[in-house]
Every structure is written in C-alpha cells, then in structure tokens.
Here is the input.
Amino acid sequence: MPLSASCVVNRSEMLQLLDKVKVSFPNDLAKAISIQREKESILEQAHVQADAVIQQARDEVSRLVEQTTIVSSARKEAARILSDAKADSDRDREEIEEYIDSRLANLEVILNKTLDVISKGRDQLNGVETKHVLSKLK
Here is the structure.
C-alpha cells in the first residue's frame, strides 16, 4: 500500500457522526457563547471592582497625606506658640526683674538716708551727753 494523503472512511459511520455533530453543535455553540459572555461579564465586574479598590486606595492615601500635613502643620503651629510664649515669658521676667531691682534700689537709698539720719541722731545724742558731762565738770 503506497503512502498517500487519502484515507478510506466508512461512509455510514461518518454520516452518523456528522448527524450527531449537527444535533449537538447548536447546544455546544450556545453553551460556548454563554460561557464566553459570562467570562466577559466576570472580567468586566473584576475591572470595576479593581477600579473601585484602586480609587479607595487613592482616597485613603490622600486622606493620610492630608492628615499628615494637618498634623505637621499643627506641630509647627504648636512649636511657634510655645516659642512665642517662652519669648513673652522671658520678656515679662526681664521687665519684672528690672522693676524689682528699681524698687530695691529706691529702698536702698531710703534705708541709707534713714541710717544716716539715725547715725546723725545718735551722734547728736552722744554730743549732748558729752556737753552735759562737760557742763557738770565746770
């Protein structure tokens, strides 16, 4: 038997097989089309869900960045307020110390004058006693 591209097939068996294919083909084709549509629907839903998840992630990132910015701004503002309060406190302390020093200097002058008056008064008393003692000696 020579080799060729032809083959012998039983005609009745082949026709029966073709009839079966004709009968089952519309159902199989309908199933295949249905499966393809379902696949496309599932893929579309997956894309929609993926887009939603991505958008939620972007929103969350934006919220976190904004929150970080707000927190950073709040910390900077708090540091500025503390710095201003410290500067005000230092300035107030300096003014109070100057006021107290001024009042103490005035008090020192008054006390020195008072001590001078007391010293002169004592000197006068001592001078009077000396005169009194000297007058008795005469």
Notes: The radius of gyration is 57 Å.
